[in-house]
Amino acid sequence: CDVFVNDAFGTAHRAHCSNVGVASLVDTAVVGYLMQKEIDFLGNAVENPVRPFVAILGGAKVADKLNVISNLLEKCDTLIIGGGMGYTFIKAQGGHIGESLHEDDLMPEALNVMAAAKEKGVNLSLSVATVAADRFANDANRKVVDIFNIPDGWEGMDASEESLEHWKKIILESKTILWNGPVGVFEMENFAHGTGEIAKYVAQATQENGAFSLVGGGDSVAAVNKFGLADKVSYVSTGGGAMLEAIEGKVLPGVAAIEG
After folding, report:
1. How many CB atoms lie within 10 A of CB 140?
2. Cis geometry, peptide bond prior to residue 49 (ω within 30 degrees of 0)
3. Which pLDDT belongs to residue 260?
4. Per residue in 162-192, is it b (16+ CB within 10 Å) or e — as a string?
5. Residues 6+ apart with CB under 8 A from 112
6. pLDDT single digits (tens) 158-201
């Protein structure tokens, strides 16, 4: 072929024959419109944000996002950590988290993140209370408990109203918002409230306050679609893994092959 146009941002973080390989064999290799949008929006949001800049990270595991957190601490004013990954931070501080999802081996890293945030003047915001359940099921018994005192046999499943009110204020005051990861088990209807509220706050900040909002990652994208808010945020990224690696500051092979 004479011209190769790569418009697959979702695979840009992988060096595959279909993106890197082809680009190296063709004289004219360029990015498509969608790929260009992703590069521009991510670059502007992370590298040149209008402040205040809040990053909202959720999901299950700290391990998946340690490098992302490290890079964001250099860029953002506030970092909200919710969802399953938050319990590792709570346990690391001596909290009792019951049966909640956590990673014991990453507790030292969690403490390092908190120390780094303090040193850099970044507001690190964790849940203050959680909607706990006595088993991992939609029809489980539920109760709101202090995040540091989750009873044995119970696990944190969703963000509480108290946590959400605190996060709402931060989000509505922000001018750049990056959201990756749910703040509860939103696949279950009884534990979807927190993630739905975060989606509403991000949409409200965008529509009413003129904030630039970038939503990415499979679960976050599913959430804004589920709550009918995808068209109310500034941009919904098409690449979860690629977006995270871009936020980490990594060079994406699919982009580098063309720019090179």
Report:
1. 16
2. no
3. 64
4. ebbebbbebbbebbbbbbbbbbbbbebebbb
5. none
6. 999 999 999 999 999 999 999 999 999 999 999 999 999 999 99
